[in-house]
Specification:
The chain is α+β, with helices and mostly antiparallel strands. The protein has three domains: 64 residues, RNA-binding S4 domain (Structural Genomics Hypothetical 15.5 Kd Protein In mrcA-pckA Intergenic Region, Chain A, Roll), CATH 3.10.290; 81 residues, Pseudouridine synthase (2-Layer Sandwich), CATH 3.30.2350.10; 117 residues, Pseudouridine synthase (2-Layer Sandwich), CATH 3.30.2350. It has six helices and 14 strands.
Length: 285
């Protein structure tokens, strides 16, 4: 257990506790800091607080950071498609249908299982089931995924993602004809009020977002978009596209389940119905 104690400065006062912790501890994301606060590993003046607690000048913050445990996920001989690799990072081309790291219901067959097989010296960072993982892609989203090969690279990449210094471009095939040639969507996103597995622009508690898009090609009843993701909220592109009336083709979670019926051509209907997953690809990073 690593212990860190510090007093809040005047410059840090009136900021969220989880934000201050993530800035004080290199490589610790705000979401991870929030989990540690909720579970009592981080206290203020010996009292448990909420992640949103606004710290005061002079508050004494004590953190007990659990030491990374040996990785328990098992190596599996799963092929990896490598787009780029050097001494510090790997950029994978993640296939659709593959989960990034083990979770309930997906204890094997993940990208992490494959990484452990092909890279035996990969360090377990932040979580024993997420070695080297600095960001994620949804199970049915394909494309570029960055993996850190060591602690220094991991901390650097986490910082770059946090400060929004990483440009992420996606390709999305959406229903309908988008108006104009480009645009920006800034609808705030939060957890869906009824279905906790979904996100929504009508949630009670939301976070700011920004999705920039431009049209790459128009088809009959379908548009191919290039999407510049400026913030990285869960399901952001899918939620924003659905909220504007143009859900991603194949996305049964956010409104694309019955859209095939809008096509007059039987051939187009059959083609759309045969799409096995959401048409979203992490194109460039």
């Amino acid at each position: 257990m690593s212990v860190l104690t510090f007093a809040v400065t005047e410059a840090e006062a009136r900021h969220r506790l989880d934000t201050i912790i993530s800035k004080r501890v290199p490589g610790l994301s705000r979401s991870h800091a929030a989990r540690l606060i909720r579970t009592g590993y981080i206290v203020v003046n010996h009292l448990k607080q909420k992640p949103a607690y606004l710290v005061k000048c002079g508050d004494v913050v004590q953190t007990e950071l659990p030491v990374s445990q040996p990785i328990k996920a098992k190596p599996e001989p799963i092929p990896l498609s490598i787009l780029y690799e050097d001494a510090d990072i790997i950029i994978l081309n993640k296939p659709a249908g593959v989960v990034v790291y083990p979770a309930p219901g997906h204890r094997s067959g993940t990208i992490v299982n494959a990484l452990l097989y092909h890279y035996q010296n990969l360090e377990g960072i932040e979580s024993e089931l997420r070695p080297g993982i600095v960001h994620r892609l949804d199970k049915d989203t394909s494309g570029a995924l960055i993996v850190a090969k060591n602690t220094i690279a991991h901390e650097s990449l986490c910082s770059q993602f946090k400060e929004r210094q990483v440009q992420k471009l996606y390709l999305a095939l959406v229903y309908g004809n988008m108006k104009g040639s480009s645009g920006v969507i800034k609808l705030p996103i939060g957890r869906h009020p009824a279905d906790r597995k979904k996100m929504s622009t009508k949630a009670r508690k939301t976070r700011s977002t920004e999705t920039r898009w431009r049209i790459k090609e128009r088809f009959q009843g379908i548009t191919l978009l290039e999407v510049d993701l400026r913030t990285g909220r869960t399901h952001q592109i899918r939620v924003h596209c659905a909220a504007t009336g143009h859900p991603v083709v194949g996305d049964t979670t956010y409104g694309g389940k019955r859209k095939w019926k809008e096509f007059r051509s039987r051939q187009m209907q059959d083609t759309i119905r045969s799409v096995p997953r959401q048409m979203l690809h992490a194109w460039q990073v």
